[in-house]
Write a structure and sequence with these properties.
heterodimer; A: 78 residues; alpha+beta; SH3 type barrels; B: 680 residues; Rossmann fold; Helix Hairpins; 7-stranded mixed beta sheet; two-stranded antiparallel ribbon; 10 strands
Chain lengths: 78, 680
């Protein structure tokens, strides 16, 4: 099922279908390895509900839900 | 022959350790021209050749969006070091190689130092190094900088590459992108190369023009035909790949890396268990326990720094400077028959002035030591992760949290800690807001006035002032974000490095790197300021030394500016002079009050001083005075730190002007509002 990354829950394993948005934030996310085809494991949500932490390409990355909503993903397993 | 090697790598790849290991103690630290990004240089030790090593900022990419990335790529393109040593964290190889794919396009020989091999081996993973070398087309040297493994081989190999390059041998080129893109790049490159001159290597320029990099585009003179050709190529590729060009290129780089990694890296099959780091993280960022734990950690750090150990070091140095040293110098000067004014200048001016700053040095070092532990262990980035939500409300990101919390201790290290913020706008705003956090030096002022006027509610009053500082910081953040610092709030994309046990050597280096700046820079400014303030307190306008401060330049200025404070409820000259001397150090307000009430040197617990203050202050006036003390321009040491970090007089003056104006307005509201409510 295709959805956006901000809809995922901790523990979800997903694969990136497309990175939307534009500008420096998008470029930064891609520089950090958020690109098409990469697998993401959603680790957790911060205690106050935002941002989120994910594991990508073997390391931990955090960014905000608003930016996660630009990342289209396909769920692999829960 | 002299060589220059540039160290480039991601943050947290062990670059600093490598630099320290290679250069030993020969390094010197400065700033890049025009910006406050650190520039470190040193000579490679244990080599007879003259090798200079330059440590470039830790970066993830060479995009045109971040200052540090622009500095790094400009350095490589303009200064053309002989070799770029790219430090790659072997345990995080995929993302680290992304920068590598950009570095090899810069037309300068690259050597990869595959660092943290010890950690990789401990994990049970393996990397086929000859294979990796072949795929990347550059030499790869395994290293573990923290154990000094492989660093000698690294420099030897780099030297070899530099010598080969000098004799005209070039590295083989590799194919990074899909054929379609490589072909387009080749075609465009033919058109672009004649326009370049010496400025950019053709491959780099072609990729950047295609991506639409604004800096590169502006620097190359292009004819109409070329602009058209670039546009056509971009349109065609964007349509084919159904994405924008920057995305396509980034995608391609990572696809290349995935191929490389799948062939040369053998990962031990994970058994699905959690690492120690994961387990610690489960507790430290737990949904419920995280924030209480965080508060507890901060509490412990502050109690130790500002509690007994800190107080002990302050008293000790204070005694050393103001009693032992001052007495010795006075005796010496007397026996040498020196003039009274010279004694007054050296003891009352310089020793007292420098002493007031030096007493804070051990405390600041202790604070930096703890912050180094929090940072090197990886906890600091988790704190930013937890606090981001709150800080976004005032237009900042979680990264601003660290400087602000440090501000409760002392504004100076807090302002220096803004260096971790990437975005210039965020940095400036954080610097402006940080001094509103009530620092330790303001506490004696509150203690005096609270005891004199709010005997039954002292803690409550003091607590309300800390809170008021935070509220003013929040409101100021919102206000400034909507006016001067308009625009998108800084994004929050941050790596959370694995928890590591910090090494003692690393902590000391970290602490010293930051602390010495405080001693050196603040020292020079404070030396000059002490002389000026001594002069203002000692001489009158006809340049005669007087005994009464009321007749001195400061006394006259105090009398002159006191009407400025009248609407705030404390328009008498003594309060004005006290606030003036508070610019040297905020706690000086108490000492000055003592002197001006003819009580000599007294502490904040003096009953006589309280009685004296009660004759011309009311509780409301006292609260307004404390409010002003809380918010007005910070002490000279903080001022020097602001100037240093803002790197601009305009911004420095704006900061202190804004703070003082805010102090005036808020005190006015407190006093006049209080009067309207019938409190005064």
């Amino acid at each position: 099922m295709e959805t956006t990354l901000n809809e995922c829950r901790p523990g979800d394993k997903v694969v990136i279908v497309r990175v939307g948005g534009e500008g420096p934030v998008k470029r930064r996310l891609m520089d950090m390895g958020i690109t098409r085809g990469a697998e993401i494991l959603v680790r957790k949500v911060a205690p106050m509900g935002d941002p989120i932490e994910v594991n990508i390409r073997g390391y931990e990355l955090t960014f905000r839900k608003a930016d996660a909503s630009n990342i289209m993903i396909q769920k692999l397993e829960s | 022959m002299a060589f220059r090697f540039a160290l480039v790598g991601n943050p947290n790849c062990g670059k600093t350790t490598m630099f320290n290991e290679v250069t030993g103690s020969t390094q010197h630290v400065g700033n890049w021209p025009g910006v406050t990004v650190e520039k470190k240089e040193g000579k490679a030790r244990r080599f007879k050749e003259d090798i200079k090593v330059i440590d470039l900022p830790g970066i993830y990419s060479l995009s045109p969006y971040s200052l540090e990335e622009i500095i790094s790529r400009n350095y490589i393109l303009e200064e053309r070091p002989d070799v770029v040593i790219n430090i790659v964290d072997a345990t995080n190889i995929e993302r680290n190689l992304y920068l590598t794919t950009q570095l090899i396009e810069l037309g300068i020989p690259v050597v990869v130092a595959l660092n943290m091999m010890d950690a990789l081996e401990a994990r049970g993973d393996q990397i086929d190094i000859p294979r990796l070398e072949k795929q990347l087309g550059v030499p790869v040297i395994p290293t573990s900088a923290n154990k000094a493994h492989g660093t000698k081989e690294l420099i030897e190999q780099t030297l070899q590459v530099a010598q080969n390059a000098a004799s005209g041998q070039l590295a083989e080129s590799i194919t990074l992108f899909e054929e379609k893109i490589e072909k387009s790049l080749e075609k465009l490159s033919e058109l672009i190369t004649p326009m370049l001159g010496q400025m950019y290597p053709p491959r780099f320029a072609t990729v950047k023009l295609l991506e639409g990099d604004e800096i590169v585009t502006a620097n190359i003179k292009m004819n109409h035909k070329l602009i058209e050709a670039i546009r056509a190529t971009r349109d065609q590729l964007e349509q084919e790949y159904d994405n924008d060009m920057e995305t396509i290129i980034a995608d391609q780089r990572y696809q290349f890396i995935s191929k490389v990694v799948s062939k040369s890296v053998k990962k031990k099959l994970s058994v699905g268990g959690l690492t120690v780091s994961d387990k610690m993280d489960k507790i430290l960022t737990h949904r419920i326990f995280a924030i209480p734990l965080f508060l507890l950690i901060m509490y412990v750090v502050f109690t130790i720094t500002f509690g007994f150990i800190g107080t002990f070091t302050i008293d000790y140095i204070d005694h050393l400077m103001n009693v032992a040293l001052a007495d010795t110098v006075t005796t010496l000067l007397h026996s040498a028959g020196a003039a009274e004014w010279l004694d007054s200048l050296i003891v009352g001016g310089i020793i007292a002035g420098l002493g007031s700053i030096l007493v804070f040095v051990p405390q600041i070092m202790i604070l930096f030591f703890f912050l180094a532990i929090l940072e090197d262990s990886g906890y600091m980035s988790r704190a930013a992760f937890m606090m981001d939500r709150m800080f976004r409300k005032i237009g900042l990101s979680g990264k601003s949290f660290i400087p602000m919390i440090m501000g409760i201790g002392c504004s100076v290290p807090a302002i220096m800690a803004t260096r971790t913020l990437e975005n210039e706008k965020d940095r400036r705003l954080t610097i402006i807001l940080t001094p509103f956090m009530s620092c330790g030096a303001r506490l004696p002022v509150y203690a005096l006035f609270a005891a004199a006027f709010f005997a039954n509610a002292q803690s409550l009053v003091i607590f309300s002032l800390y809170l008021l500082g935070m509220v003013v910081a929040i409101l100021s953040g919102i206000l400034l974000r909507k006016t001067l610092f308009k625009g998108e709030a800084e994004a929050f994309v941050m790596e959370l490095p694995p928890y590591r046990i910090p090494t003692f050597k690393g902590l000391m280096i970290h602490m010293w790197d930051r602390g010495k700046g405080f001693i050196k820079k603040a020292g020079t400014v404070i030396f000059a300021a002490s002389v000026i303030i001594w002069f203002g307190q000692t001489f009158n306008f006809s340049l005669q030394m007087g005994d009464e401060v009321s007749g001195s330049i400061f006394g006259s200025v105090g009398t002159f500016i006191s009407p400025f404070f009248a609407p705030l409820g404390f328009g008498d000259w003594r309060s004005s002079v006290a606030l003036l001397t508070g610019f040297v150090a905020k706690e000086a307000v108490v000492a000055t009050m003592g002197i001006l009430n003819n009580l000599g040197e007294v502490g904040e617990g003096s009953v006589e001083l309280m009685a004296s203050l009660q004759t011309y202050f009311t509780p409301l006036k006292a609260y307004a005075f404390m409010t002003f003390t809380l918010l007005y321009m910070p002490c000279i040491a903080a001022f020097a730190a602001i100037k240093r970090e803002m790197n601009s007089w305009k911004w420095t003056l704006f900061t202190v002007g804004y703070q003082t104006a805010t102090a005036w307005i808020v005190s006015l509201i407190v006093y006049q509002g209080g009067k309207l409510l019938g409190l005064g």
